[in-house]
Amino acid sequence: MIRRTLAITRKEIIHIIRDPRSLAMMFMIPVIYLVLFGYTATTDIEHLPTAVLDQDRTSQSRELVDAYRASNYFDILFYVRSEEEIGKLIDQGQAKAGMIIPASYGKNLTTENQASIAFVIDGSMPTVAMTALSAAHTVAQAQSTALIERVYGLNIEDQPGVDVRPRVWYNPDMKSANFMIPGVMAMILQIQATIFTALSIAREKEEGTIEQLIATPLRSMELIVGKVTPYVVISLFNLIEVLLIGVFWFGVPVNGSVLLLLTLGVLALLVSLGIGLFNSTIANTQQEAILLTFFLMLPFIFLSGFFFPLEALPHVLQIISYLIPLRYLLVITRGIILKGVGLDILWDQALALALFAIVILTLAASRFRKRL
Q: Which of 91, 105, 143, 217 is deepest in the core (most CB within 10 A)?
């Protein structure tokens, strides 16, 4: 049995080596995904292009503009003369925010000890708008505090009130890369292993070599194990590759056990291989296998919590998400890498993956027959 399985594994390795473009894709796709998501899938908004309409032109208004510039959230790139110019800049996409300082700003600060400004934000991208809105309020509050301390000679910290001192655990700097990169690792394990496993069987059908395998004394399980073994090794290598790049290039800290991560990664691989094998029993060509895999993977990604928090989904979709294996894998990778938790916390996620692996591999094996 072992000799026959190793023979199929050797045959599959030869297939992979003889197709250098596919081999290069297997190793380059994870790196490309990681770089793209690491740099582009971020909600860390800084240096937002901002236009300023300063109708006051006093030292107080200039001090306010300087406070916004110093925050690093806003880059003051445009000084305009009318609100219409702000609207035009935002419509053209050259500015994402606009600050309007009325002519009475400095006078109101002096006589009434308070003044108002208008802050226009481009809401076409809600994530950017929410961050900009929060930053605008933060800078305004800091400037108000500074004015109170200067005008009244008071130290705000000595005044009665509630002092909130928040602490952010696991990701103190709230870097998006620390959240996205563990997710990319899970996605690569899920998608890549599924695609290449489905292609390996579909290729045999498409090229007509499946008949030659049928004529051999191979059992179905020996054929399955022999075909998928190279992709298990490649997927584990890619997981380590992505983990190293995430740590040394993007500075993502690994707070938990790497050994536990790899062990549960193998469990997740069994799920992916089962899905790939199941798809290969349906598809007759490699093109059909790719289309079917992407048809399944897109809902997997959007219903797993990879991009959007599950709590934000409608209740019906939250229930459906429990049928998505990637959901549990994301909890595992982010839990181990960011939180440093162990199997005592993640046992239920690991159990869910184990159940998925058993069910999906059983279905795939039952459909896979050593016949045309």
A: 105
Residue 50's pLDDT is 92
The full DSSP string for 67-111 is HHHHTSSEEEEEE-SSHHHHHHHHHTTS-SEEEEE-TTHHHHHHH
- Residue 333 near residue 186, CB atoms below 8 Å: yes
DSSP bridge partners of 52: 79, 99
3-state secondary structure of 13: helix
Q: Distance between alpha carbon 113 and the CA centroid of its chain, in Å? A: 46
Structure token digits, residue 323? 């049928």
The HSE-up count of residue 368 (CA atoms within 13 Å, CB side) is 27
Q: Name beta bridge partners: 118.
A: 100
Residue 240 CB-density burial (10 A; 0-12 exposed, 13-18 middle, 19+ buried): middle
Look at residues 70, 12, 48, 20 and name the one whose alpha carbon lies nearest to residue 225. Answer: 12
User: Mean pLDDT per segment of 10 residues, for the chain of length 372 residues?
Assistant: 71 74 75 75 75 90 88 88 90 88 85 82 78 83 73 58 65 76 83 80 71 65 75 83 85 88 88 84 79 81 82 85 91 90 91 92 73 44
Ordered structural domains, the chain, with CATH: 2-41+175-367 (no CATH), 48-158 (3.40.1710.10)
pLDDT score recorded for residue 158: 58
pTM greater than 0.70 (yes/no)? yes
Tokens 């991208």: give the residue: 125
Q: Which residues 6+ apart lie within 8 Å of 331 measured at CB? A: 346, 349
The total number of residues shown for the chain amounts to 372
